[in-house]
């Protein structure tokens, strides 16, 4: 029923253009696979399914090269079997691939060549992407290598089936405290992830509760093994989030002190046990000493002590410790003006640079707060040249409309990845920190919190599929243009209709800005309903323990994070950025209230006052949300009705909810400031 919603960007719709079908059939009738492994099997299966659906043929599959028109799959190992093929495997990295069309008088062959089998699979998905977007295949000469080594998805799934910050139904992995039986669904998820180059997944919430603590015990490891083998076939390594206090929680010891010999021994044995089940297990993702989770602080040890203890246990097996830097005081007194949550990660971790083992990676959220619609880039990126770092994004839209509002995040992620840290002078963007090219990192990459659940369209809002797609593509290559990724996704998801392409592309690319317009202004963040994080509540967090304040009074608003008069946060950046943010003259408008407390009458660079900007953007934002809906309705007869109606419903909710945002924000600031809207629009 829900076929198209479910298939996401792997639609493989039958191609109507007879000439093109004929052309594609020339190669697609024969799939010749020189390599043989479960990963190659996946590539072969995907090609087989896709080509039969798109071209209405049954490809012949064989394991040797015959002199016929064909698609050939091979990895570097099989190079000697590739007669006279002139290719240079040195130009690609471990996960890289080449796609080459070689035509002679007698026949034509498309080679899908990977350094390893995973590359062959990525090449197969690439070829299918080209075909779904109706590209010519007769002169292909594609050379691709992922820029990031670790391309990871973090599931925040709990074993009771709930998903922390999940907005698309329940978990596809677990139900009622046991593993789901629906392995097909997990396999289809693996296909989606692998098709955009994801190569790692952690399968449980970073907040590891009672039941999930057992995932590393022999009671649940057989099930983890089963899931790992599904992902393995798609080139994806499985990781687990662990409870730092497992030694205690599982009843074996009465301490979790990382320097205690018994604790060390316990984890070493634990690692051995896990690797007996899963020889290519990825490692642990750890949230420690953060939001009431246990960690080394209890024992007066630091994060390096904690991470290194686990790293030693995993090291003999090649496993990684991914240690999260989301560490801050979540029991702050709002009266305490000296503590600034934004400073926390840097203050905790920067002094430990160089103390972490080689197989530890610090996973740092993109901003110093928590995935707000707009916040500064974390100053920790680039500040630890001797410690592996990776990025954490959030694909699930916790603070960006929870998949009920359209908010396409690729433009945001691009801005963050392109942000110049100045770590090595001008031209030191974040993307070159996390891809490991700026400093000699052994491991690095990008992770993101997933946005999928068991909804039939995976993501609740069907257009939110674009965020998952975009995350994968951008992580593969942060230099890709947002427009390119967007068009690729639309073509595969909705077909080749030009109007559809144009309208959806406009909708997606503007949606982040639109969402920002009617929510919290000028980088100040929060102003959401506590706990749920959906909907406006200006003072929701203002007098609470979470360290997330805007300090609005009758004169002005914003958080003074300057060195001169504020919390000193700006000093955590490299000099050029410190100076830019420190001064009102150079601080960019969109982050003004993140860095400064200013009067409502302060003039922005755009020429309008802060209060007028708040009014203007909130009125505009609602109008723009309405335009999103209008655009969509022009596509009524061009999109299948289920997807059309699904998306229309969400856009309608967005329009009406954006008005709630507009009116609450405008009214709040009108009442605080007593300053009227210059244009005299309705404020309550
Ligand atoms: C946010 C989110 C929590 C989550 C936490 C984390 O605070 O609201 O649900 O656990 O981030 O990233 O650990």
Automatic annotation (TrEMBL):
Quaternary structure (record): Homodimer.
GO function term, MF aspect, one: xylan alpha-1,2-glucuronosidase activity
Residues annotated as domain Alpha glucuronidase N-terminal: 8-127
Entry annotation: catalytic residues: 291 (proton donor), 370 (proton acceptor), 398 (proton acceptor)
InterPro entries: A-glucoronidase_C_sf, GH, Glyco_hydro_67_aGlcAse, Glyco_hydro_67_aGlcAse_N, Glyco_hydro_67_C, Glyco_hydro_67_cat, Hex-like_dom2
Origin: domain of life: Bacteria
Annotated Gene Ontology cellular component terms: extracellular region
Phylogenetic placement of the source organism: Bacteria, Bacillati, Bacillota, Bacilli, Bacillales
Family (UniProt): Belongs to the glycosyl hydrolase 67 family.
Keywords: Carbohydrate metabolism, Glycosidase, Hydrolase, Polysaccharide degradation, Xylan degradation
Species per Swiss-Prot/TrEMBL record: Neobacillus bataviensis
Residues in Glycosyl hydrolase family 67 catalytic domain copies: 131-458
This enzyme's EC code(s): 3.2.1.131
Protein name stated in the entry: Xylan alpha-1,2-glucuronidase
Residue intervals of the Glycosyl hydrolase family 67 C-terminal domain: 459-681
GO BP annotations listed: glucuronoxylan catabolic process
């Amino acid at each position: 029923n829900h076929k198209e919603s479910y298939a996401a960007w792997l639609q493989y719709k039958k191609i109507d253009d007879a000439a093109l079908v004929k052309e594609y059939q020339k190669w697609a009738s024969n799939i010749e696979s020189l390599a043989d492994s479960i990963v190659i099997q996946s590539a072969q299966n995907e090609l087989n399914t896709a080509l039969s659906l798109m071209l209405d043929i049954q490809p012949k599959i064989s394991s040797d090269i015959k002199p016929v028109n064909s698609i050939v799959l091979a990895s570097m190992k099989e190079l000697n079997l590739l007669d006279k093929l002139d290719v240079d495997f040195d130009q690609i990295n471990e996960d890289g691939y080449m796609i080459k069309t070689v035509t002679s008088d007698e026949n034509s062959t498309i080679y899908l060549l990977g350094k390893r089998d995973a590359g062959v699979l990525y090449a197969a998905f690439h070829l299918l992407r080209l075909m779904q977007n109706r590209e010519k295949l007769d002169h292909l000469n594609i050379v691709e290598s992922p820029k990031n080594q670790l391309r990871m998805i973090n599931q925040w799934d709990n074993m009771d089936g709930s998903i922390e910050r999940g907005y698309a139904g329940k978990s596809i992995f677990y139900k009622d405290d046991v593993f789901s039986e629906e392995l097909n669904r997990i396999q289809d998820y693996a296909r989606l992830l692998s098709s955009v180059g994801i190569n790692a997944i952690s399968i449980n919430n970073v907040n590891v509760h009672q039941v999930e603590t057992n995932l590393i015990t022999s009671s649940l490891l057989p099930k983890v093994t089963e899931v790992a083998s599904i992902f393995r076939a798609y080139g994806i390594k499985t990781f687990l989030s662990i409870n730092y206090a497992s030694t205690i929680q599982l009843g074996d010891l009465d301490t979790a002190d990382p320097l205690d010999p018994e604790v060390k021994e316990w984890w070493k044995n634990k690692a051995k046990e896990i690797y007996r089940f899963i020889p290519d297990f990825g490692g642990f993702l750890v949230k420690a000493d953060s939001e009431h989770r246990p960690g080394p602080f209890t024992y007066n040890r630091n994060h390096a002590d904690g991470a290194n203890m686990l790293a030693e246990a995993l090291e003999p097996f090649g496993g990684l410790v991914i240690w999260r830097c989301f560490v801050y005081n979540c029991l702050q007194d709002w009266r305490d003006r000296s503590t600034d949550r934004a400073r926390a990660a840097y203050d905790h971790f920067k002094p430990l640079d160089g103390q972490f083992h080689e197989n530890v990676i610090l996973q740092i959220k993109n901003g110093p707060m928590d995935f707000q619609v707009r916040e500064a880039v974390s100053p920790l990126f680039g500040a630890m040249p001797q410690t592996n770092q990776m990025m954490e994004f959030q694909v699930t839209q916790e603070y960006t409309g929870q998949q009920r509002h359209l908010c396409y995040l690729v433009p945001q992620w691009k801005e963050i990845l392109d942000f110049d840290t100045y770590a090595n002078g001008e031209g030191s963007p974040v993307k070159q920190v996390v891809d490991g090219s700026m400093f000699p990192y052994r491991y690095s990459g990008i992770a993101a919190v997933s946005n999928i659940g068991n909804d039939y369209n995976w993501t609740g809002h069907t257009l939110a599929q674009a965020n998952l797609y975009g995350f994968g593509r951008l992580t593969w290559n942060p230099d890709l243009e947002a427009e390119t990724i967007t068009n690729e996704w639309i073509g595969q998801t909705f077909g080749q209709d030009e109007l559809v392409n144009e309208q959806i592309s406009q909708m997606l690319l503007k949606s982040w800005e639109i969402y920002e317009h009617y929510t919290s202004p000028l980088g100040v963040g929060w102003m959401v309903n506590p706990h749920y994080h959906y909907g406006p509540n200006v003072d929701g967090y203002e007098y609470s323990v979470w360290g997330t304040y805007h300090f609005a009074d009758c004169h002005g608003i914003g958080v003074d994070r300057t060195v001169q008069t504020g919390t000193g946060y700006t000093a955590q950046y490299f000099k050029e950025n410190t100076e830019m943010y420190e001064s009102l003259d150079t601080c960019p408008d969109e982050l003004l209230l993140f860095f400064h407390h200013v009067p409502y009458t302060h003039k922005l660079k755009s020429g309008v006052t802060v209060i007028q900007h708040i009014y203007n953007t909130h009125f505009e934002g609602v109008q723009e949300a309405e335009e999103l809906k209008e655009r969509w309705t022009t596509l009524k007869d061009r999109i299948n009705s289920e997807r059309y109606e699904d998306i229309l419903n969400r856009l309608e909710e967005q329009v009406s909810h954006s008005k709630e945002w507009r009116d609450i924000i405008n009214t709040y600031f009108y009442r605080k400031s007593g300053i009227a809207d210059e244009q005299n629009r309705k404020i309550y």
